[in-house]
């Protein structure tokens, strides 16, 4: 989807074990002269990623969004959410928990994204709840669902990819 570019500013929510952070640093050239900025957060500690600012904190804590905004020191071009709630084994409950995380990530993205920015979030198969999907479509020019090739074929994991942030006035 080509949403990670040199000089880009990226926030990675639910970053452990650091795979998205590594890719974002590489693509944005974070840590290099003229490169971008990557700020990652997860409640689970993981090894530092050269070029990224890594925060070990629960995103749902009230002070986490402020800490992320402070570390970002400006607007974001991309907000990635790979957050996942512990599975209960009850599909409906697990789906609701994931939707809650996506809603929290979307609210944060609406506060920090620059015009034209992108929002990418992990959802479970069955996609996103209709009200949430409608809100995403109001905020972004294009919205698609994608299942990456790296995802196990039996996994219910998918991503919603929203690009062309319009701002919160629409």
Alpha-beta content class: alpha/beta
| Main beta-sheet strand count, sense and barrel state | 7 strands, mixed
- The share of residues in extended strands comes to 25-35%
What is the CA-atom radius of gyration, in angstroms?
15 Å
In the predicted model, the low-confidence regions spanning at least 5 consecutive residues are: none
Cα end-to-end separation: 24 Å
**What is the typical, i.e. mean, pLDDT?**
90
Please give the structural blueprint.
Elements: E1 9-13, H1 19-28, E2 37-42, E3 52-56, H2 64-72, E4 76-81, H3 91-112, E5 113-124, H4 130-139, E6 140-146, E7 157-165
Parallel strand pairs: 1-2, 1-4, 2-3, 4-5
Antiparallel strand pairs: 5-7, 6-7
Kindly describe this structure.
- The chain has 4 helices and 7 strands, in the order βαββαβαβαββ.
- The model has no long low-confidence stretch (mean pLDDT 90).
- It is an alpha/beta fold and 170 residues long.
- It is 30% helix and 29% strand.
- The protein has helices at residues 19-28, 64-72, 91-112, 130-139, and strands at residues 9-13, 37-42, 52-56, 76-81, 113-124, 140-146, 157-165.
């Amino acid at each position: 989807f080509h949403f990670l570019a040199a000089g880009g500013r990226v926030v990675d929510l639910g970053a452990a074990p650091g795979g998205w952070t590594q890719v974002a640093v590489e693509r944005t050239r974070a840590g290099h002269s003229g490169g971008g900025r990557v700020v990652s957060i997860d409640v689970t500690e993981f090894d530092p990623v050269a070029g990224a600012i890594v925060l070990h904190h629960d995103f749902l804590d009230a002070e986490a969004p402020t800490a992320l905004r402070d570390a970002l020191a400006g607007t974001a071009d991309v907000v990635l959410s790979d957050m996942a709630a512990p599975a209960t084994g009850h599909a409906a409950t697990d789906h609701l928990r994931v939707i809650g995380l996506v809603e929290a990530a979307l609210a944060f993205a609406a506060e920090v994204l620059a015009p034209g920015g992108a929002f990418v979030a992990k959802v479970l198969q069955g996609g996103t709840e209709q009200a949430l999907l409608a809100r995403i479509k109001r905020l972004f020019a294009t919205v698609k669902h994608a299942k990456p090739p790296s995802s196990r074929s039996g996994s219910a994991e998918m991503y919603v990819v929203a690009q062309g942030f319009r701002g919160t006035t629409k």
